[in-house]
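Researcher: I've been going back and forth with a colleague about how DNA helicase RecQ might be arranged in three dimensions. Neither of us has a model we trust, so I'd like an independent prediction. The organism is Flavobacterium difficile, in case that matters for your notes. Sequence below.
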Amino acid sequence: MTEQNIDLYKELKKYFGFSQFKGLQEKVVTSIISGNNTFVIMPTGGGKSLCYQLPALVLEGTAIVVSPLIALMKNQVDAIRSMGSDIGVAHVLNSSLNKTEVNQVKADILSGKTKMLYVAPESLTKEDYIQFLKSVKISFVAIDEAHCISEWGHDFRPEYRNLRSIIKQLGDVPIIGLTATATPKVQEDILKNLDMPNANTFKASFNRPNLYYEIRPKTKNIQSDLIRFIKQHKGKSGVIYCLSRKKVEEIAQVLQVNGISAVPYHAGLDAKTRAKHQDMFLMEDVDVVVATIAFGMGIDKPDVRFVIHHDIPKSLESYYQETGRAGRDDGEGICLAYYSYKDIEKLEKFMSGKPIAEQEIGFALLQEVVAYAETSMSRRKYLLHYFGEEFDEVNGEGADMDDNVRNPKKKTEAQNQIVT
Ligand code: ADP
Ligand code: MG
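Model: Here is an independent structure prediction for DNA helicase RecQ. You can compare it with whatever you and your colleague have in mind.
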């Protein structure tokens, strides 16, 4: 098919059952189908997968989809397969396959059945796979979570750095990079590393007008403050993020003792307990999950009414990502973070064992967190500016949804409140 004779709406309906594109999807899909290098920046939940899945299904050949996590790939592939039997086959190629399975995948690609081939970046470095992929028709290469390319991203993966040279070996195939990390520095890095300075770039707004941002000084009364807040929002779902497993356990217990239904979640719990606690939260058998950052990847509960940071996160990217789990249904979403400079020093100490370059980046990201926490200006404006987006603090959507705008205070007064 060529771009002219594809009815995108018909294909959207046929494969995904949707009647409308979300946000910039149609423009992105058109760009890819026309064979352009394309760069997509959309917040989590924005609908990035469809941006490459739809072109993959309608274009001739197989699209290669690079994704960092086997679990994420498996989810996506299962989702595509569940769309029905006339859907182009999606396959995963990674180290978990045995020889017979690899041969089956290759056979399906050769026969033209496979429209999407999900690969981990390290699998792509295998000479055997490269030789094979050189011999088949590749429609394009999609690089999901493209921020993994950048040291300034929150999840740098060195294997991502080799992608450009590997793709070059496959011939002149278009590349599409996708990410939810939007700082100008990371964007620049991605375009440079993928060597596509002229890529069509599509950036969705990162504004979440229904989220209310508030920073409270972290004092020794934090636990009673926390309990008071949760009791004021009785029966509502919320997540409390803590830095350490120990703190997660401690806070979960304190809440339970105070009659709040809460469960802990962190990577130190066995898989069964973690799954159970996650399900209890999703099924609303408990109101609150107290968690480390291990909780949240792919959690899609639409009516989380508050996200509380008991400890300030290590970057504004993490803060945005974690607070973003509130109010997915566009209903109320309160984002409350407790801040003390002592916690910043603690985070700095964690970094001291790391290579110098990494430390410098880590410190720079932390300074942005400090500036955000201590600012007296519109938090939304600050946050969006950090992501390279200008926000109209008077008329913009959600302009009055933060503590600084609702209760303006003089800078000195604000600083006096910070207990270190
Ligand atoms: P992202 O990767 O940007 O975080 P996903 O690709 O996982 O987002 O999509 C988020 C959700 O949006 C999914 O549940 C998906 O089914 C839904 N979605 C995507 N496109 C559309 C659309 N055009 N209409 C309705 N829902 C959509
Ligand atoms: Mg995604």
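Researcher: What would you highlight for our discussion?
Model: I'd start with this: Residues 356-374 form the longest helix (19 residues). After that, consider the following. The first strand starts at residue 38 and ends at 41.
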